[in-house]
Design brief:
six-stranded mixed sheet, about 45% helix, alpha/beta
């Protein structure tokens, strides 16, 4: 049985599902390689306009596979080049929604933070407990977490290894929405369907400019925004969207 599954439940929507229930979806090397392959493929598939990433309705991902790392040396870890696998997710041009039930710990929390929206169940918990086993986050946990929640909240989570519940994650800025546990998957699909119905070029430009602008000066970020805004006026979807608005009808976006 594959350790990850890809489904196409709705037009324009792909779901990538972690499928290691016996290991609480722990991220071993095979899972990372499969995730990278799926994201690479879906990134270039113009039929896909939004991606939902989930571990199912019990657990998102309880962290890295400790059994797979416990006796490794520094050179072995270096030679794995796992940052290249994570890059396939980080560089995905399509919006990614993480649907989080249960644990999102360690590598699982880092995986969720690679998404653009996080829909969490009320019983979900997020944490970076690596310090408890003598290491530290290695897939963006110190950097993405700080950018999401700020220095002091990030330090509390990273230095103690203590998790936070979904309600606190929402207050901190580590989740987009919190819903009942049994509504997480359906809500993520609902948002994905909504986004998939938007003009794809505009959606991808919004994601690209927002992410690029985070680490740029305000003047540079505003320049990126302005250029992308202007560029979209050469798209067929801009003409369709504005004409449909004026004609009081529903637009049909082609991605051109």
């Amino acid at each position: 049985m594959s350790e990850t599954l890809v489904e196409r439940p709705l037009p324009g929507v792909a779901v990538i599902r972690l499928n290691r229930p016996d290991a609480r979806n722990a991220l071993n090397q095979a899972v990372r390689e499969q995730l990278a392959a799926h994201f690479t493929e879906l990134s270039s598939d113009w039929q896909v306009r939004c991606i939902v990433l989930t571990g199912g309705d019990q657990v998102f991902a309880a962290g890295a596979d400790i059994r797979d790392m416990a006796e490794r040396g520094a050179m072995e870890m270096f030679q794995r080049q796992t940052h290249r696998l994570w890059a396939a997710i980080a560089q995905c041009p399509k919006p990614v929604i993480a649907a989080v039930n249960g644990f999102a710990l360690g590598g699982g929390c880092e995986l969720a933070m690679h998404a653009d929206l996080i829909v969490a169940g009320e019983g979900a918990s997020f944490g970076q407990p690596e310090v408890r086993v003598g290491i530290m986050p290695g897939a963006g946990g110190t950097q993405r977490l700080t950018r999401a929640v700020g220095k002091f909240q990030a330090m509390r989570m990273l230095l103690t290894g203590l998790p936070v519940k979904a309600s606190e994650a929402l207050r901190m800025g580590l989740a987009s929405e919190v819903v009942a546990d049994d509504q997480v998957q359906s809500r993520a699909l609902e948002l994905a369907e909504l986004i998939a119905g938007m003009p794809p070029l505009a959606v991808m430009q919004i994601k690209e400019v927002l992410l690029a602008g985070q680490d740029a000066s305000l003047d540079t970020a505003l320049m990126l925004e302005r250029k992308a805004f202007q560029l979209l006026f050469d798209s067929a979807d801009q003409k369709e969207g504005m004409r449909a608005f004026l004609e009081k009808r529903k637009p049909t976006y082609s991605g051109n």
